[in-house]
């Protein structure tokens, strides 16, 4: 609570200094240079077009110009520019951590929702999407259960794609870099029949050797990656009232995953030097189809979104990470997901705006892992599957009580039935079990926003969310260790959104407190073998903090950006056993939750076309285990980019992690007490061409 009180003080102070500045600035001078004014950003995060101040919560928006200027090609790198957002991207999986709400390391699902053009991407493995040919990315913090089809516990990342229209657009991307890295992309969109039928296509290939070397055979491609992904859209507008989109997308990824190395003990190696006697590989295949049908009346819009996604990941991994052939694991996970959503939205400009939605889903998962070891007692197989059927009704309405004062309320009813089964086969014989995980959730939200003047908006919000329960496919041994229930969060936040100095400076502040009950955690199975875990709802935690972000353009050619997020994620109550000994983790930090994130950047563009930008990106300390024994102290990297651009072409050279900062993205303790670590990316250089025609 000390941090929350400090945040409240900062919030109040910001409000007090903003008022007199805006009062003095309420009547701008007539000769203000219009080139200085930052354009108001249009967002669709609330499922209708609006501006940042219209959304009753903290939201970050980064458009395609922002991404191209900084050479951001995937979601993981983009999130470093957003306060209190961190993408855990490791060989064991990915997840988006928002405001310190993380999840179990091997969980299949992320507490933060991810959508691409209104289509949900539910699995954590899908998190680090490429961002080629993207219009913008909207990041919403806090539960969004009353706006989006699928529930999200900590927030939503909404990737908005460009809609094809009568304008012909073509783009080619060519990029080369160190570690034999190359990226080639092509995008094209335009009319097939003017005013009636349009197309958009985007294709991208990516290859790299990666930066790790296997010291056993000198192989420098053990964390290499070869990826090809594509997306196609047909848009049909038979009348002014109908807008129909048919989409297909897919990706094939061949990924080296030999990233873990020992930092201590007899098998310790230096940074980026790994040891493996297996061909560590992961193969991912992803395919999606969707149909969006929109019909508009004078004051109402009806939208239907039908989507289907399949995902398959297989991996083979040296599980002991030594030169001796002791053991390896083979994993196979497949998902087949169907989602149907209907949304009815008001479109008039009256004092009352509203949204009503229905969502249904069917999700089937087949998951198995084989552990092979020279010791028969450590050899086992697990094969399981689950079927999840869920329905939800949700709605949200905003009423302008008086001019500038808006009250927003919403409610979601979410019902789900998830049935799972598994067969576990150790050397002593097979054991089969089945379990149901059912849930009915009522999730309300309430927000009050006030436009103090045209330049300042203050708001406060209370909302609820949850992270669904599921199944422990990779380490369960019986029914008790197989299933776990949902965790729940209540979010409280207050914020102000401001623009100063004739709209050349914007500054936003948010403070929040999130109370998490029934926290999903990993615990030892009493008497179980090495690596046998169960997932339970044994912990109570909270996270409190502050988020600051701003932009300033003192002259048309120069712009500064800055952001800071602090999230104090603490275990309030968690008592368990480790090795048969009672342990109390209360007061510890929540694993996989960085204490803070920050970014500071400057961008200069000369009228001749030459440009340069520099960004400082920082991540605070985080722990990788419940005992808080495995720790990354925090790190910061500097990225530089310079080049020349016209309306049609951009040529740039760049450097990421200029000073070759060393840091860990994952640590795990072995049964022998040694530490395995995955290293973060080193210094890299490259050259990029963006050609638009």
SSE topology:
Layout: H1 2-24, E1 42-43, E2 50-51, E3 59-63, H2 64-70, H3 75-78, E4 85-90, E5 93-98, E6 112-116, E7 119-120, E8 134-141, E9 155-161, E10 169-177, E11 181-193, E12 197-208, E13 213-214, E14 225-236, E15 242-256, E16 260-262, E17 273-274, E18 281-296, E19 300-318, E20 327-346, E21 352-373, E22 380-402, E23 405-426, E24 431-453, E25 456-467, E26 470-471, E27 483-484, E28 487-500, E29 505-524, E30 533-555, E31 558-573, E32 575-578, E33 581-584, E34 596-605, E35 610-619, E36 622-623, E37 631-632, E38 635-645, E39 649-656, E40 664-669, E41 675-679, E42 684-692
Describe this structure in words.
It is a multi-pass membrane protein. Residues 232-658 form the TonB-dependent receptor-like beta-barrel domain. By secondary structure, the chain is mainly beta. The protein has a single domain, classed as Beta Barrel (Maltoporin, Chain A). The protein contains 3 helices and 42 strands. It has a 22-stranded antiparallel beta barrel. A 5-stranded mixed beta sheet has the order 3-8-9-6-7. Strand 1 (42-43) and strand 2 (50-51) form a beta hairpin. The N and C termini lie far apart (55 Å).
Average of the residue pLDDT scores: 91
Percent of sequence in beta strands: over 45%
What distance separates the N and C termini? 55 Å
Global Rg: 25 Å
| Low-pLDDT residue spans | 2-32
Roughly how much helix do the residues carry, as a percent range? under 10%
Largest sheet: 22 strands, antiparallel, barrel
CATH topology: Maltoporin, Chain A
Shape: globular
Annotated CATH architecture: Beta Barrel
């Amino acid at each position: 609570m000390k941090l929350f009180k400090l945040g409240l003080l900062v919030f109040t102070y910001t409000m007090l200094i903003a008022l007199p500045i805006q009062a003095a600035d309420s009547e701008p001078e007539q000769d203000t240079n219009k080139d200085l004014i930052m354009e108001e950003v249009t967002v669709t995060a609330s499922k209708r077009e609006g501006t940042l101040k219209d959304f009753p919560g903290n939201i970050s928006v980064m458009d395609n110009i922002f991404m191209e200027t900084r050479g951001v090609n995937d979601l993981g790198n983009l999130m470093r520019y957003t306060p209190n957002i961190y993408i855990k991207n490791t060989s064991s999986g990915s997840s988006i951590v928002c405001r310190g709400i993380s999840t179990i390391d091997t969980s299949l699902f992320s507490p933060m929702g991810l959508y691409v053009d209104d289509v949900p991407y539910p699995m954590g493995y899908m998190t680090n999407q490429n961002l080629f040919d993207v219009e913008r990315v909207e990041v919403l913090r806090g539960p969004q259960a009353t706006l989006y089809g699928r529930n999200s516990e900590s927030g939503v990342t909404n990737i908005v794609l460009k809609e094809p229209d009568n304008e012909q657009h073509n783009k080619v991307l060519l990029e080369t870099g160190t570690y034999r890295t190359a990226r080639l992309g092509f995008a094209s969109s335009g009319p097939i029949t003017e005013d009636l039928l349009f197309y958009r296509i985007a294709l991208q290939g990516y290859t790299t050797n990666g930066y790790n070397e296997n010291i056993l055979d000198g192989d420098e491609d053990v964390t290499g990656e070869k990826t090809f992904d594509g997306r196609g859209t047909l848009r049909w507008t038979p009348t002014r009232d109908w807008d129909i989109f048919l989409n297909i997308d897919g990706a094939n990824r061949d990924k080296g995953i030999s990233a873990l190395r020992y930092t201590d003990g007899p098998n310790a190696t230096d940074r980026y030097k790994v040891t493996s006697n297996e061909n560590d590989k992961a193969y991912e295949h992803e395919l999606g189809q969707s149909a969006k049908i929109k019909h508009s009346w004078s004051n109402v819009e009806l939208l239907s979104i039908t989507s289907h996604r399949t995902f398959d990941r297989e991996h083979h991994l040296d599980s002991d990470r030594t030169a001796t052939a002791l053991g390896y694991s083979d994993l196979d996970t497949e998902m087949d997901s169907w989602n149907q959503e209907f949304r009815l939205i008001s479109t008039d400009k009256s004092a009352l705006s509203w949204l009503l939605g229905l969502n249904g889903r069917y999700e089937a998962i087949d998951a198995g892992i084989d552990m092979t070891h020279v010791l028969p007692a450590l050899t086992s197989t697990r094969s399981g599957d689950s079927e999840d059927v869920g329905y939800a009704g949700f709605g949200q309405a905003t009423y302008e009580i008086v001019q500038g004062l808006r009250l927003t309320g919403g409610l979601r009813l979410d019902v789900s039935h998830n049935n799972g089964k598994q067969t576990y086969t150790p050397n002593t014989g097979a054991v089969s079990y089945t379990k149901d995980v059912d849930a009915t959730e009522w999730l309300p939200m309430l927000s009050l926003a006030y436009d103090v003047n045209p330049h300042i908006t203050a708001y406060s919000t209370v909302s609820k969310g949850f992270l669904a329960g599921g199944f422990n496919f990779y380490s369960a041994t019986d029914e008790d260790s197989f299933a776990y229930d949902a965790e729940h969060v209540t979010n409280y936040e207050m914020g102000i959104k401001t623009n100063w100095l004739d709209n050349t400076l914007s500054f936003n502040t948010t403070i929040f407190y999130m109370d998490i009950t029934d926290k999903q955690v990993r615990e030892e199975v009493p008497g179980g073998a090495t690596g046998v875990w169960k997932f339970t709802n044994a912990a109570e935690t909270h996270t409190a903090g502050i988020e600051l972000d701003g932009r300033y353009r003192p002259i048309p050619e120069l712009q500064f950006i800055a952001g800071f997020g602090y999230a104090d994620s603490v275990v309030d109550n968690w008592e368990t056993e480790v090795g048969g000994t009672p342990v109390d983790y209360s007061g510890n930090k929540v694993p996989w939750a960085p204490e803070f994130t920050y970014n500071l950047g400057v961008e200069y563009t000369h009228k001749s076309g030459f440009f340069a930008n520099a960004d400082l990106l920082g991540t605070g300390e985080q722990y990788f285990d419940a005992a808080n024994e495995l720790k990354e102290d925090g790190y910061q990297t500097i990225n530089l980019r310079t080049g020349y651009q016209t309306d049609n072409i951009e040529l740039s050279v760049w450097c990421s992690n200029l000073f070759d900062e060393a840091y860990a993205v994952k640590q795990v303790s072995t049964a022998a007490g040694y530490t395995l670590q995955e290293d973060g990316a080193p210094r890299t250089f490259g050259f990029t061409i963006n050609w638009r025609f």
